[in-house]
Amino acid sequence: METVLEFMAQSPGLWAFLLLVACGLGLPPWSEELVILGSGYFVSTGDLSYLAAVCWCWGGILTGDTIIYLLGRFAGERVYGWPVLRSHLKPARRRRFNTSFLKNGTKVVFLARFVPGVRMVAYLVAGNLRMSYTKFVILDSIGAALTVPISVWLGWKFAANLDWVLDIMHQFRVPLLILAVIVVAYVLYRMGTARRDRFLNLIHKRKQREE
User: Where are the domains of the chain?
Assistant: First the structure.
């Protein structure tokens, strides 16, 4: 954790973006959770606002995932032989993903965001099999919305115990995902309710003017 924080100290937002792009490409020996929690840490120090931290992290995740998707789409089968990817993309795993993707492409891409060991393979296959990029980005964005805001918040509020938070996140990944779904659903519900109330209030005022 200290290594990540040292990297991010000079420019937390930019480094969060760059490290998350690298994580998406499988380059550094760090997980996305480390970088996102680190962004929350710098919210606690005042070096980043909460919204800025979420946006930098979201942008880094989507950029890294997009690069993998585009490699799968335009580099084709050659990409599986590249040294940096070869260890992540065993032939047996690729065959399983191809089969699963042809049956349940939408579910595979969405769920892959929450399973680091299979994420890269899923996104390369999505590109190989020509999933719509718009659909890919929407699914990836929804997945990021379920994890990034909460992870940044945890890093912010538990800045003094980041290693403990990371351990809890690994042990309770599924319950935390369910909690994230509930929170996002509640926020969307409140936004929809507020929009509906504004619309009804506008109609009411218009009727009053007409009377």
Answer: 2-161, 172-211
